[in-house]
Design a protein that fits this description.
The protein is an alpha/beta fold and about 210 residues long. Helix 2 crosses helix 8 and helix 4 packs parallel to helix 5. The structure holds adenosine-5'-diphosphate (ADP). The site of adenosine-5'-diphosphate (ADP) has 18 residues, from helix 2 and helix 8.
């Protein structure tokens, strides 16, 4: 739990209630949190889903692992502490986006259970839906894909603390959705996400 540093600060409640905002924008906020090994397919699925949702006229935004590390989290590395802070900040950003009425897609390895649970709790406390999507791809398949050559480098000892090789990946215990990309096509994975969002009332059926 990150400590509150600043003192003498007061929460300022705005004049617009969430319901009023969502109803005026005709849009529902929710966070869909993709977790899984590197190369499991998180970014590929989240990007295709984003395209599908935008095509349907849904207000959607995607936050992606490496991209966030170029900006908001450029001062963080891959130690356990930095990984936790990375995910904490993303969780807070997702919460803000979801509150704004956006279908928010986040794709981060987010290997530690406690960090993901903390993001879920943030959303729960704010009355926002948090959907954990486990992109469940076996390590050997990820390693074979290796689109960025990272597993090769990790096996050669050129990258230390690489998830799945010499850093743990803690599998979700209660994921709302599990996507087995070694068995299902990209289109099938996207369809499963769309169906889930319809079921959750976040987007309208077509
Ligand atoms: P991550 O974001 O989890 O690191 P990426 O999306 O960058 O993973 O890479 C996943 C790779 O796996 C891509 O090269 C993608 O084309 C491939 N792939 C093969 N089958 C699937 C599938 N069913 N769903 C998603 N990606 C798949």
């Amino acid at each position: 739990m990150t400590q509150q540093k600043a003192t003498n600060i007061t929460w300022h409640e705005g004049d617009i209630a969430r319901e009023e905002r969502w109803s005026a924008l005709n849009s529902t906020g929710i966070t869909m949190w993709f977790t899984g090994l590197s190369a499991s397919g998180k970014s590929t699925i989240a990007s295709a889903l984003e395209q599908a949702l935008i095509n349907r006229g849904s207000n959607c935004y995607r936050l992606d692992g490496d991209n966030i590390r170029f900006g908001l989290n450029k001062n963080l590395g891959f130690s356990a502490e930095d990984r936790a802070e990375n995910i904490r900040r993303i969780g807070e950003v997702c919460k803000l986006f979801a509150d704004s009425g956006t279908v928010t897609l986040s794709s981060f390895i987010s290997p530690y259970l406690a960090d993901r649970d903390a993001c879920r709790e943030l959303h729960d406390a704010a009355g926002l839906k948090f959907i954990e999507v486990y992109v469940d791809t076996p390590l050997d398949v990820c390693e074979q894909r290796d689109p960025k050559g990272l597993y090769k480098k990790a096996r050669a000892g050129e990258i230390k603390g690489f998830t799945g090789i010499d850093d743990p990946y803690e599998e979700p215990a209660n994921a709302e959705l599990i996507l087995k990309t070694a068995e299902k096509s990209l289109d099938e994975c996207v369809e499963a996400c769309v169906d889930f969002l319809v079921e959750a009332g976040a987007i309208r059926p077509e």
